Every structure is written in C-alpha cells, then in structure tokens.
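Hi there,

I know you've been waiting on this one. I reran it after we fixed the sequence typo, so this is the corrected version. Both the input and the resulting structure follow.
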Amino acid sequence: MSGPSSATGLAHSPGSSRGREHLSTLRPTHVLYGVVALVGVSLFSVLLGAADLGWHRVLAEIGAQVTGGISPLSEREAAILWQLRVPRVVLAALVGGALAISGAAFQGVFRNPLAEPYLLGAAAGAGLSVTVMAVTVPHIGLGTTGVTQLAAFGGALGGVMLTWLIGRSAGPETATLVLAGVAVGAFLTAAQTFVQQLRVESLQRVYMWILGDLSTAGWGDVLVVLPTLLPALVVLCACARLLDLLGVGDEEAATLGIRPGRVRALVLAAASLATAAAVSVSGLIGFVGLVVPHLVRLTSGGSYRVIVPLSVMFGASFLVAADTLARTLMAPAELPIGVVTAFTGAPFFAFLLRTNRAR
C-alpha cells in the first residue's frame, strides 16, 4: 500500500512536477554543453592529421581567414587543411548527428532504448547493393564515388521499404515491423554473402566499405548529403514532442489529436532517409545511433524534446572524435572508423547498461 500511495503523492507534489518539467525541457545549458563539445572536438580534430601542419600555425590560419590577415601556410598546406581535413570533420559531424538522431527516433517509435538506425534493414540493403556493384562493375572503386553513394543510398532505402511492406502486410503492430526487419536483414545479408562468393577478389574492398570510411571525404561529399539530410533532421526535431506523446500509448495519444500510425510512418521515413544519406558517404558505422541517444537519456532525462536535438550534437561530437582517433592512432595508416566506434562504443554501452541496472 505504501508504494502506490507514495508514488501518487510524489506524482502530485509540486517538487516532482517541477522535476519532470526540468527533465522534459530543452534548456539553454543543454544546448551550451552540446555546442561546446562539438566545437571543442572539431577544433581538436582540425589541428591533428597525418600532415604535421603545426597546431599553432593552423590556429593562425583560421584566425587569418576570419580577420583577413596573412596566411602562415603554404598553398599546399592550406589545401590540405581546407580541402581535406575540414570537410572531413564536417562530414563526420553530419554523419554522426544523422545516425544518432535516427537512433533516437527509432527508439521513440518502438519504445525501446536498444533500437538503432539499422533495425529495419538499411545496413543490409546498402551492403547488398554495394556488393552487387563491386562484383558487376569491379573497375569502380568503393570510395566516396557518386556510383557508390547512389548504390548505398538506394540499397538502404530499398531494404527499409521491403521491411515496411512485409511488416504492414502482417499487421499494424510495431513488433511485427521489427520482426520483419530482422527477417529482411538476415535475407539480404545472406544474399550479400552469396554475391561475394561469385567474385572472391571483391571481398576486401566490400569489407573495408562495410567497416566505414571517411578517408576520401571532400566538400563534394558534404554537398551531396546535405539536400537529403537537412530536411530529415528538421522533420525529426519537429516530431520530438510527438514521440513523447506516443510514449503514453496509442489510445491516449489519439485523444490528444495525434494519429499514431501517421506519426510513426513520418518519423520512420525521415529517420530512414537520414540513415541512408549517412551510409551513402561513410559506409556502415555502428554504435553511434545506439550509444549516443542512450547516454543523453541517462544524463539529461527521458523526454525526446531533449534527447532528439542533443543526440544530433553529441552524435556529431562522438563521430568526429572517433574519426580523429581512426586517422591518428596509426598515422600515416588509418583504422576503419567502424572499428574505432565498436572499440569505444561497445564497452561504453555495456557500462551504461550496468549503471542503468544499478540505478
């Protein structure tokens, strides 16, 4: 008896109401922390690289560009900084933000903090599409070429659409959609393995793409991903409040004027577009969409009005930091960025799960 009564009393207490409002509102300090983290990590990443430009000279170059002063870098060094290093940092931030907000959106739709952006077959579809391209057109490299990007983008969307069609035909429940995603992912992965065996020499190229790669990024890649990514991010941020309403149940949400089915379809479509855009320029990078939203949830509250925008900023910071490690730990060689995110994300996520259980 004491449990329910105390819970009821707590729910109606002024302090508890203020606490819930505190945890469900995006405060200026939240934004400040996210901006400081992203700017700090990005600046640190720009200062480091295989080509030793000197951190003080890079800072002087940035200052010269802002104030119109004299550049301390040679023409070649300036090209390395502004045409290779800076766009790579920007692209890593965009991909990290896209994967993190997509993971948060999937978690909100399926009411499961373990959901992630590849749940509905985007990764398997992209992997199969790129593998087919590598086998049928072997002379095309699997870097950030336009053909690779188009194949990955189309394959990711194709995998999600196939999952959606199968899931909707079996029933309207979200659990059915998840099961359809598992089935489609398994089938497409098996198909990818079969195609790889047709041309074994393509295995290494496909495997390196699957592990994630931002090494050949330039401003062209940033411009390619922006038209798809930015509208998807805007839609997901605008739907953050609706994700909170979905959490109370479909019937309750419907009484508030919300159509749960349409909201889920809109959010999943926007999250899938963001995921496909990210995959098309970076390959398959894991754990970002799983770890970052969960970390934001543990530190800033459970409201998606907080989780969604903060996931963008901290997801961007996380992937920029991971990419910095990928290109500096074994310089001049590079580690696949997916390996770095797995090494850092998997133990960290295990720690978060243990901490959450203790709480």
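Quick highlight: The chain has one domain: 50-358.

Best,
R. S.
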